[in-house]
Amino acid sequence: MAVAAGAMADLSGGQEPVAVGLWPPGEAPPAFQYSPDNVAGADGHVDPTEITFPGCSCLTSSCVVHACSCLCRGENYNSLCLRPADKEEEYARPVFECNSMCRCGESCPNRVVQRGLQFRLEVFKTEKKGWGVRTLEFIAKGRFVCEYAGEVLGFHEACRRIQAQTSKDSNYIIAVREHLHSGGIMETFVDPTYIGNVGRFLNHSCEPNLFMVPVRVDSMVPKLALFAATDISAGEELSYDYSGRFHNLPITNREQKSSEEDNRLRKPCYCGSRTCASFLPWDSSLFSTPDAFSGISPLHFSP
């Protein structure tokens, strides 16, 4: 397809290293406040801007594995591309980038997601899916594409907001549950409805070309980073699986049953892939009380 040059306006208002285009000219999505990074939610439960990690003491511009405290779990990136997990690894490896307290330079190769957008993206009007995002240039497999940024909420506020939605409202709230070796679960709730970045316009696909990885920089509050799952051509729409099942465990019988019961609440999927599930992923647990919190997760990671 021909790649449109996009409108002259920058949707990010100059807040990104690379301008975010908008198409077609004269049209714009409903108003929201653009923020390239996560911000504290209205409940003030979590402050994603707080710096709690100590920095590495590396004095070179390029941190190296085993000599750098941020890379004690191994190398994260290779030539700006996320290093794939080893086949023998049972769990996804957590990703910690060097942070603002580190003594290494800004050119350190362990600083990728924190640099923000590096590719020209365009928010555009789709035929059936509302607004979407496409790339205006080639993106190699493994490269960081964009963050899914917004208000970081506590569980109760996330539940309150999603239960207040009507069938006509678009749901932007995402819940990430990371299953730890210890058996514990770390939960992160991000809502870019009112404050967010270009990631809020990404559509779901049952055969996505992006996948999400929680990346930590300054604290344990992760950046929800989206990486290219394959080489992506200029003009191609960007998408990820809202259920977070890319490179994760297959759906369980229990989750399948829950999905069937919740079909009346779910919205149709228009991704058009060969394996389309007909409905967008749905998390019934956010309609439950905290004591009954046991539903399926929109995103299910196992670091």
Automatic annotation (TrEMBL):
GO terms for molecular function: histone H3K36 dimethyltransferase activity; zinc ion binding. One of its GO terms (cellular component) is chromosome. Residues 54-116 form the Pre-SET domain. InterPro entries: H3K9_Histone-Lys_N-MTase, Post-SET_dom, Pre-SET_dom, SET_dom, SET_dom_sf. It is found in: Chromosome; Nucleus. It catalyses: L-lysyl(36)-[histone H3] + 2 S-adenosyl-L-methionine = N(6),N(6)-dimethyl-L-lysyl(36)-[histone H3] + 2 S-adenosyl-L-homocysteine + 2 H(+). Transmembrane segments: none annotated. Residues 265-281 form the Post-SET domain. One of its GO terms (biological process) is methylation. Residues 119-243 form the SET domain. Its main location: nucleus. Signal peptide: none annotated. Its EC number is 2.1.1.357. It is an enzyme of class 2 (transferase). Keywords: Chromatin regulator, Chromosome, Metal-binding, Methyltransferase, Nucleus, S-adenosyl-L-methionine, Transferase, Zinc. This is Histone-lysine N-methyltransferase SETMAR. It comes from Calidris pygmaea (Spoon-billed sandpiper).
